[in-house]
Amino acid sequence: LAYPGAYTVLTTGAQVGSTEIADAMYRATYRADHVEGFSISLGEGFELMEVEGDGYTIIGLLPLDEPDAFRTAVALTAEAVQWYRETYGFFPVKQIGIIPGPRQWGGGFPLANVFMIHRATLTESFLRWITAHELGHYYWGLYVLGTGGRLDWLNLANGIWIDHLYLARTSGRTVTDVLRERGAGDMLVDYLEAMLENREQRLGISSETEDSLDFDYNSLIRHGKATVGVYLQARRLGDERFLDLQRQILEDYRFKPLPVSEFAARLEAAGATGAGEFFDKWIRGDARVEFDVDRVESEAAEGGWVHRVHVSQAGTIPYDLEVELVGAAGASVVRTLPMQGFAENGEGVLEVSIEEPLREVRLDPAGALPMRNTSNYGMRRAWLHAMYRADTTEPFLLLAPDYLEARPDDDHMRLLFALRLFDTGRHERLVAAQIPFLRGVAGGAAAACSTPYNCRSAILVARSLVFLGRSDEAAEILNAIEGPAGSHGQTRRWEEASAELQGNGGE
């Protein structure tokens, strides 16, 4: 490669030999083994940052205007590479580069031995996930190959499972927690959104069909639905056994395509009975994991009560279901109804003896399944987020208050609830729902404005009060939160609300 001496260069390969200099031009040779192509990134005003590991090098191309964010990305990549090496036993490339992507996009993109980080979001928490996520492609998709394109859905999902495990084990959470919560690509919410919007949900469609769709199939289905499917099967084995399965596939399918049938067969051999049938149904457009309680029969017995819970498989996909029985005095028993326990008509019966009459039956108490009627508030939150994104307004507004009563500290969901009420002109309901929170916090509105989300919610309350002609109350809130709003980056929104107040005769 010959390039101007003022340029900084990062390529797929490592430099071989020394750099020649002539007529203000540099000439260098780069080599990379077993790559699909060769990427070249170069330009003025960049700095290189290198981290040497045990047999590998991490190099970041730092932009002049955002060097600190990309220094952080390089450091986080080094942490993730070390974890991957310890977990899988190897790192598949000798050099990995990091380059800045477009500002208007979020996420990243893997190239040969180089991955791009787009610049719409560059918070440290996001960088921790995206670096681990991009590294996963170099095992799943660029080492173990896909049968349906460069990064097929099966490899995407395996890579996302391992980046979720990385986040889980470095933060004291579980893979289920990471999947349900925000900040790791929102794969579960993407899938739920596609279901709510009745989008094309088949996996493995042609690129021509994908291009003809009027929604983000890549995010919602190739990433979202694929991830949920692999997660559900990995959960049946447990983290360690699924890790062992991944390690063996990495050993056996180096630079070879992995068919879905082979992946399912290995799952079944490891103990996930029925994995082949599961994926045959999961790749279809009508895949749903859903159960309903049809009826409960209870009778007094010696020493307590016997409760028979009749559950029907309302979805198209069989799966093991956890059921929690809660007694009248608070005793709780969790039992699993295995998918083999459902009869041909889709009904399963769970018989449980406890000392108390039955107060409640809860389905999926651990929040492991993408069910609409889950009892788990973490999974309910994912559904609410998907409802908000899919504009299913009435169900969202119906279910959000119950969730917020149980999870009053979820400031992001509080904001989404306020936004949807405000945008649909339900100002009285917004004020009635939010004022108790603003006034219930010790220190009032100023103290309640403790996060950017809560500050924005408070501003929406003030704006709704202006619409309702209650200018004095609006002024009281805006005066109280002026300082916190500035510290949380909400000054522009606060000023807009103040202008509305003044325009309506307030002070």
Uncertain spans: none
Summed over residues and divided by their number, the pLDDT gives a mean of 94
Main β-sheet, spatial strand arrangement: 6-7-8-10-9
Query: Considering DSSP H and I runs of 4 or more, what fraction of the residues is helical?
Result: 40-55%
Overall geometry: flat
Distance between the amino and carboxyl termini: 66 Å
Which structural category do the helix and sheet elements fall into?
alpha+beta
Q: Using the CA coordinates, give the radius of gyration.
A: 27 Å
Give a count of the beta strands, DSSP E runs of length 2 or more. Answer: 16
Quaternary state of the chains: single chain
**Major sheet size, sense and barrel closure:** 5 strands, mixed
In what range is the share of β-strand residues? 15-25%
The number of helical elements comes to 18
